[in-house]
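Lab notebook, bench 4. We co-purified these components, and the gel suggests they stay together. Before we commit to crystallization screens, I want a quick structural picture of the whole thing.
Request: model the full complex, all chains together.
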Amino acid sequence: MIDLESGYILRPVNPVFIYFSLFCALLLNLLPIGNYGWVPDWLIVCIIFWNIHQHRYIGVTWAFIFGLLMDVHNSDLLGLHAFSYALVAYIAIAWQKRIVALSVASQALHLLPIFLLVALFPLLMHWILSGEIIWWALTGAGQAFIEALLWPLATRILLAPQRRPIDVDHTRPL
Amino acid sequence: MLIDYRFKTLDPIRNNVNWILRPLEYIMLTPRNVYQASTEYFTTRGTLEQENQIFKARQAELALLANQSEFLLIENQNLRQLMDLQKQVGFKTLPVEILFNPPNPISQRVVINRGSDDGLKLGNPIANDAGILGQVVRLYDRSAEVSLLEDRDFAVPVQVARNGLRAAVFGAGRGNPLELRYLPVASDLEVGDILITSGIDGVYPPGFAVAVISRIERNVDKNSSNVFCVPIAAVNRYRQALAFLYDPQWDAKAPTLNGKFGGNIAIPNSAPGRRQTRSRGMQ
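Here is the predicted assembly.
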C-alpha cells in the first residue's frame, strides 16, 4: 500500500498489531474517567482507522462485536453502539478510496460527520424511542471534535510499524 | 434495540458479555486505585491525628445514640403492638464498592461490585452514611448497576421530616436539582426542610434522609409549586456505600427463613399485617 503523504510504499500490515491496537483502544475506553460528554471514544477512532486502511481485516462484523461490548459497559440499550459502530464502519469502508487520498488534516475533517453520528446516536435513538430530546446529551458533539483532533495522532501511531524502513543500514544511518 | 427496550429479554446476553468484560474493567480500574491509594498513603500525621479526634468524638456521640435507639426501638415495637399497628421491618446491610460511572449521556448510573450472587435483588436501595444514593436497576451475577438519585425521572417517595407531609422526589437529569412534584401552592414547605424516605412504596426502608429543599417557587396561577432539592448524600463522590437488603414481605414469611439472612437488627418475625409490593418494571 502506498503512503500518499510521503509517496513511499508501506510495509505489509501485521494482523496481530491490528488486533492488539483494537484491544488497547478497548482498554482505554474502559478507563473510569467518568460520565462526561467530552471523553473521546478511542475504540471508534481505531475501528474507523482500520476500516479505512485495512478493511479486509477489520470490517462491519468486528465493529458490531466491539459495539456490543461497549453497550454492556455503558449500560446502554443492547445494540445501540453495535448498530452505530457497524453503520459507521460501513460508511467508512464506502468512503475508504476517497479518504485515503486526502491529507491527514482533511481526512480528519471528512471523518468528523462520522464521529458526530456515533457520538449523537444514543441521543437520536432515545429521541425516536421515547420522544424527548435530552439537550444535555448534545455535549457528546464535543467528543466527536476531540476524536477528529485525535485522528492525526492515530494515523501517526497506527501507521508507524508500516512506515519502518525495510532494510536498515546500521553503518550509514541516513 | 427495540427488543431490549420493550421486553428486556436480552439480559442473559448482557450477563455473559459481562463475564468477559468485567476482568478488563477491573484491570483498567487499577491505575486510578493506585493513584488514590498513593495519595492516601502520603497524608501527613497531623491530618490523621485531626481525623482521629473527630472520629473519636463522633463515635462517643453515636454510641450514646445507639444505646438510646435500642431502647426506643423496643418501646416503639411495644407501642405498635399495643396499638395493633404494623411492625417495622428489619433489614440487612451489605457493604458495596462503587466501581465506576459508565459513560452514558442518557442516564446517571454507577456500577457496584456486588450482584445477585451476594443476595442483592432488583430494586434494593443503595445508601451511604449521609443518605440514600439510588437503587439497583440491573443485576448481574457479580455486579449490579445502580440508578442514582439524579437520574432522569428517578422517583423516591419521601416525607418532610418536620411535618410528615408526603411527596415524591424526582430526578431531573445530570447536574440539575431534584424536583418535588405534584404539590399544591399551600403546602407547608420551607427552604431547608429535610426529606426522608416514607417507606410507602416498600422499596426504601422508612426514615432515611434523601434531600434538602433548596428553592421553592410558588406558582399561584397554576396552583402548583416548583420545589427544588439537593441530595444529602454526595452522589458522585464516595466509593463505599451500603446496600439495604430490604423486603417488606419478610415479616410475613415463616420464622425459619430469618436465620438465612441473619439480619443485624433482631426483630421478631410475626407481624399482623403484610405489605404487598409490586415488582417494578424499571430497566
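The helical segments of chain B are 2-6, 11-41, 45-82, 258-261. Worth comparing against the SEC data before the next meeting. Chain B is about 30% helix and 25% strand.
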